Every structure is written in structure tokens, then in C-alpha cells.
Amino acid sequence: MNMNEIPPKSGTRLSRIKTACRVMRILIGVNLVVCFPLTFAIYFGWLPNLPLDAKILVSPHQLYVSPHEMPMTVWALGLVRVGLGVFCCLALYHLFRLYERGILFSAKNVRDIRFLGYYLICDWLVIYELESLSHKMDLSFNQVYIGLMVIFVAWVMDEGRKIQEEQDLTV
Amino acid sequence: MPIIVNLDVVLAQRKMRLNELAEAVDITPQNLSILKTGKARAIRFSTLEAICETLGCQPGDILEFRPEGAKEKG
To answer: Which residues of chain A have pLDDT under 50?
Structure first.
């Protein structure tokens, strides 16, 4: 069979991937459009009162009723976490859009996955800083390990992509 | 890459079109186009053999080694 032809079963699988990724992309898009602006509004105190008994969880030991009672450092670091979350969601949105277009193994996919790994590590560093401010440090290194593993998997995927590209360009 | 593919030159000399060659050597025109445009990373001996047989030429007529930075032949 020619390498350019997509066998019928693969076509069905690809359409399933595309459908699932479209749903995921829409969910992440809603998160980006609704949840993050709401979080920023809470952080900047644009929402006068949080609904019900809701509290702002900046890190496991940093819990606040309103942004006004947060120390400046905690507020800034909390904002950094939200910002990192936005970038993470943008990377995921971009990744799922690539999958939706049928691009499964490209340099862009690798870049997005690698970014997720960096996000996990950076987020952990911010949490570490926040926890050190609260003097109640009981953080695990799991997030860092997972971040490193994601970066490693992205590297393997990139090498695999290069091998695949070389095979595709062998006449 | 210092390996230059002169398939277009040989095809022009033989007054043959890419599609005709593709049909003769049983390779898709897309793959042959990859070879012609110099995007190919590798070529199988079987492909090279089929192309040389069809065009009546030597592998050296199709492939040329030109060191990086060397000027093109006049």
C-alpha cells in the first residue's frame, strides 16, 4: 500500500479523534472565555462578594475570603499561577486544534506537549514559593516528576517524528 | 544537502514527463516529485535501479555531489 493512502479503518479512527478533540477544544475554549476572566475579576476585586461560602485557593495552605486580605506577594504569585494556567489552556487548545485537523505528530504538537511539561514545573515552583510564605510546607515532588516525564515524552515524540519524516521522504 | 538530484535534467534530455516516469517505475508522482525537488532524504536502490533502467542512464547522471558553498556549474 502507498504511504499516502489512508486505510479505511484509520479513516474512521481519525474521524473519532477529530470529534473527541473538537469537544475537548470547545470545553477548553469555554474555560478560557468564562473561567479565566472570572478568576481575574476575583483577583482584581471586581466581584464585590464571592458567591456562597466560596474562598480563593491560591495554594494548599493559602486560602482567602477576598483578594483584599491577601498579602501583596501572595496576590502577585496567585496571579502568576492564573496566568500560567491561561498559557497552559492556550497550549492545550492549540494542541487539540492540531489533532482536530488530523495533524497528530508534527513539530507543533511536540512544542505544545513540551510546553505543558514546563508549565507543570513552573506551576510547582510558584506553589513552592507560596507554601514557603505560609510556613506550612508539605509539598510533594510529584508534579515536578510528571513535568519532567512530559518533557521527556515530548522529546521521544520529537525523535519519532524525525524518524517518521525520514521514512516518509525515502523514495 | 550537498547531494543534488538532476532528475529534471535527465527527464528533459529524454523528453519524458514526470507522470510517464512514475507510471513506468511504479512510483506515485508525489513521491517522484519529492525526489525531483530535492526534498528526499534517501532513495532505495530498487527505486534508483528502476529509474536508471527506464531512463537508460547511470545513477551518477541523476545524483551529483556538490560540496556546500561550491558554485553551480556554468
So the answer is: 1-5
B32 by Cβ neighbours in 10 Å (0-12 / 13-18 / 19+) ranks as buried
Closest by Cβ to B28, choosing from A2, A165, A169: A2
Spatial distance between the Cα atoms of B57 and A37, rounded to a whole number of angstroms: 67
ipTM: 0.71
Give the global pTM: 0.74
- Do B5 and B40 contact (CB within 8 A), yes or no? yes
Residue A62 in grid coordinates: 493559602
Q: Check B34 against A169: CB less than 8 A apart.
A: yes
**Residue A163: how many CB atoms within 10 A of its CB?**
10
Burial class of residue B24 (count of CB atoms within 10 Å of its CB; 0-12, 13-18, 19+): middle
Distance CA A134, CA A62 (A): 7
- The torsion angle over the Cα atoms of residues A151, A112, A159 and A105, rounded to 10 degrees, is 140
pLDDT (0 to 100) of residue A32: 93
How many other CB atoms sit within 10 Å of the CB of residue B27? 21
Comparing CA positions, the residue from B65, B10, B40 lying closest to residue A167 is B40
The secondary structure of A101-140 as a DSSP string is TT--SSHHHHHHHHHHHHHHHHHHHHHHHHHHHHT-----
CB contact under 8 A, B41 and A4: no
User: Which chain A residues touch B41 with a CB distance below 8 Å?
Assistant: 165-166, 169-170
